[in-house]
Amino acid sequence: MEEGKLNWNLKVSDLHELSELYIREKRLVFDKIASLKDPNFNNTLGALERFDRDWTCLVNTLTLYQHVASSPELRTASSEADKNISNFDIQMSMRFDVFKVVNSLVAQSGTLVAEEKRCLEKFLLKGRKNGLEMEEVKRNAIEKLKQELSDLCIEFQKNLNEENTKLFFNPDQLNGTSQSFQDSLKKSEDGLLELTLSYPHFFPTMESCCVPETRMKLQKSFNSRCKDTNSLILLKVLKLRHELAGILGYKTFSDFTLDGVTMAATSQRVKEFLENLKLRLKSLGEQDLNALLELKLTETDDNSPITMYDYRYYMKRRQKLHCGIDHEAYRSYFPVTKVTDAVCDIYQELLGLKFTPDTSAKLWHEEVRCHVVHDASCGELLGHFFLDLFPREGKYGHACCIGIQPSCHSDTFSQPAVAVMLANFTRGQGDKPGLLTHDEVETYFHEFGHVMHQLCTRTQLSCFSGTRVERDFVETPSQMLENWCWSREGLKRLSCHFDTNEPLSDLMIDNLVKSRFLNHPLKTLRQVALSTLDFVLHTDSNVDLSVYDQIMTDILGIPPLLGTCMPATFVHLTGGYDSKYYGYLWSQVFAADMFVTRFEKEGIFSQRVGMDYRRFILEPGGTLDADVMLRNFLGREPNSDAFFRALTPRV
Asked: What are the φ/ψ torsions at residue 498 (nearest 5 degrees)?
């Protein structure tokens, strides 16, 4: 690993200076291309490819600081560097002179290899979607809009990262939560327990606390994060996106953003997909909701409708009563260190890899761990991954994988990948290790699947490396891998009681597997509702954020709490999933097909199927269309049969 590119000891001034250096060097490359008299692939797109290959690691390091640095000054400087770099990259993407030179390569496309030809097609598509075939006045307006949008999206996410609301409760107000959870909380001077809005505090409380007033207060605070600032930012973002789409000649922003970069391709197809899901699941979701209401009435004599702060609590209660699921008992079988070891072992076996701890790697925090990855059969270096698993103030609040250095391999050059996984799991206290819920184990397995996608690609050009696939396919590989967390063989390997070292018993596994599809229609309808919100906001320029209330009430049957503004906390809207949040559901269709067709039939630990998955799904990166990769792996056209069978097990 080149420490010069991957530097975790940078100062505030370094972030500014290095971002300016990147800008100067990249401008020189663009200027040189614009002046070419005899352009070819090597001195145009090849030159851009080599620059991005060599500089992406440094740029991603600079911008990662805003998500992981302990120093607020470093986080702010990283955010500013991100804005400067993003605005500059927008400027370069609007270079008409460069677009004109590259466009001349179309006449040479017959001489290009497949990956080069695809690179040319993608570059020209992006140029057309940037308006580079339009007159200068419109191009200037587009550039200004894109820069303003970039700044606003970075600010939206920065506000959520920096959010640090604290709520205080006495132990009785947290009745129902485990003693170990309460022991892990900080205490105020007057003995009250401190709750933040981070995942390790929010979810256990919402799922276990039997005091509705506490759940209501926490839910209201959670869905009011950055309400005043981010709601204004989001409204402005939506206005500018609609304006941008209009200038470019698209009917809606959804039509613009889906065109040429997704499997769905059109807003009409997304609309039909979501409406079909709603139609097929609505009655089943209502059955789930009625079951929760009956449970609430039985336990409280309260016949008022299920609320947002009841939703998670009664779903967990239903799992416990119907399937014997005591989530606190299950947590004891998932200590984070043991789960980490098991996840690594499973992926190594499945994909033919070898992980080795890299104790010499420089780290940005003492809790971070680094591993080096080699191909198990030939010993080739594939890359490094970093695990940053626990919450800190100012750190990114969700779980994700961030590609730092893209891999690319040719006859004359090979660059290994670097990826970072961020999570916010509960850390250990004293002699007791950090324990994961089964949901968190599933999240771990999912995000680590993205890490493997980054490290296993075998592309010649870095622009197709890793998860640079269609946006509504990017979740498919990881969603397919979640099935290991629901199989007997997988759970035996993933579980290890922190005290006895015993795996989950057969009965506990049977109960857990039985619980998988309990509440499933209702949970899926929530995703349909969020996808619909994202879609409506980007197709109807006349709606405001209150449309969220209507959508949740209509689709999920649960109105939001008064005074909240969940869209102001919906980080996906400004994080690359604009009008593409449906992709989580779309991806599940193909994830189910892959798992049932190959792994379920031939064995989830079949190395032959695992290597086929690595070869046909992970290694191509973005060099092939998703439907081609699926056909290669499945041996036929993909279909939605397995997906709908799983969604509607009672039909």
From this structure: -65, -20
235 in Cβ contact with 545 (< 8 Å) = yes
Residue whose token pair is 């680094």: 370
Q: Is the pLDDT of residue 5 over 80?
A: no
Rounded to whole angstroms, the Cα distance separating 24 from 27 reads 5
SS3 (DSSP) at 51: helix
Task: Grade residue 276 by pLDDT with cuts at 50, 70 and 90.
Answer: very high
Using DSSP's 3-state secondary structure scheme, residue 408 falls into strand
Please return the burial class of 209, using the count of CB atoms within 10 Å of its CB with bins 0-12, 13-18 and 19+: buried
Is the per-residue pLDDT at 425 higher than 80? yes
**What does the H/E/C string look like for 181-216?**
HHHCCCECCCCCEEEECCHHHHHHHHHHCCCHHHHH
Amino acid at 579: S
Question: What confidence tier does 650 reach under pLDDT thresholds 50, 70, 90?
Answer: very low
For tokens 């250990």, what's the residue?
A: 428
Sign of the CA dihedral with 340 first, then 342, 621, and 576 last: negative
C-alpha 549/C-alpha 366 separation (Å) is 43
CB 482 within 8 A of CB 446: yes
Q: Which residues are catalytic?
A: 447
Token pair 């799992």 in the structure block, residue: 319
Find, among 112, 126, 128, the residue nearest to 460 by Cα.
112
Rounded (5°) CA angle 529-402-131:
70
The tokens for 169 are 């409760």
Residue 15, burial from CB neighbour count under 10 angstroms (0-12, 13-18, 19+): buried
Q: What is the pTM of this model?
A: 0.93
What number of other Cβ atoms are within 10 A of residue 629's Cβ? 26
Sequence-distant (6+) residues with CB within 8 A of 118 are 464, 623
Cα–Cα distance for residue pair 123/136, rounded to 1 Å:
19
**C-alpha distance from residue 107 to each of 80, 110, 205, 250, 537 (Å):** 41, 8, 62, 28, 41
* Strand stretches in 93-223, DSSP E: 166-169, 193-196
Q: Residue 241 has which token pair?
A: 């996106």
Where does residue 206 rank: exposed (0-12), middle (13-18), buried (19+ CB within 10 A)? buried
Residue 386: beta bridge partners?
A: 370, 420
Q: Which of 473, 480, 492 is nearest to 624 (CA)?
A: 473
Residue 640 token pair: 């939605």
Average pLDDT over residues 328-340: 96
Overall size of the chain counted in residues: 651
Structural domains in the chain, CATH included, are 12-93+95-129 (1.20.1050.40), 164-222 (no CATH), 264-324+526-583 (no CATH), 336-519+588-647 (1.10.1370.40)
pLDDT at residue 412, rounded to an integer: 87
Measure the CA–CA gap between 294 and 286, rounded to whole angstroms.
12
- 259 three-state secondary structure: coil
